[in-house]
Amino acid sequence: MTHQQCTSQERHVDDPDVPAAPDGADGYAEWVQIALTLYRIELDKSLRETEEYLNEMPGILAVFDLDDAPHYSSFCRWENEYRMRELRRLLRRSAEQAGWSGEAAIDASGFQRDQTSYHYRDRADFSFQSMKTTILIDVNSLAIKDVHFATQKAWDGHIGMQVFRRNAEDLRVLSADTNYSWSDLREECRSNST
Fold first, then answer.
1. For 148-193, what is each residue's pLDDT tens digit?
2. Long-range contacts of 21-25 (CB under 8 A, 24+ apart)
3. Contact at 8 Å (CB) between 136 and 146?
4. Pairing outcome for strands 130-138 and 144-150
5. Is the pTM of this model over 0.70?
6. What is the arithmetic mean of pLDDT over 28-46?
7. Are 146 and 91 in contact (CB under 8 A)?
8. Domain boundaries in the chain?
9. Are strands 173-175 and 103-112 parallel, antiparallel or unpaired?
10. Beta bridge partners of 137
């Protein structure tokens, strides 16, 4: 994550003038929480590994105006705190910065939780076995415009319709495989000149 991306995220929160770690408070500014949450996901590291990694990277901490990395339990709390709507808003802002051409592709991938121990699933209150992730991406800039997560069996055409409706005003061309070949979705695209 670059300094420019962090500054951009800082501008999109309620009070960007709040310091990264206010004196006398045990919390962090909202922009720091969101940026570090997204950075942890980008690193693809566990919560503890992220804390250790950041403490070994003073240059990254300096971007966030921090002396030490937040405790790993803070990352866990932050990830549960921000709703998907907020993360979608950040994705849209990032796509705007990267350049949105109006030509997009949509596809899905699955994730099975059967490798997770039953003990951990009970402690973390996971009640689903698999997750389906659908991504809308700009084919020119490769910016992610939208994501959709489903823990129940859902047909790609129905999910595609939801993702399309959220982004219809920005789409000129939508590419997809045959799993999205649903007459209602094609008609919706035509009616929106996509």
1. 877 777 788 889 999 999 889 889 999 999 888 899 999 999 999 9
2. 21/65, 21/66
3. yes
4. antiparallel
5. no
6. 81
7. yes
8. 3-82, 101-191
9. parallel
10. 105, 144
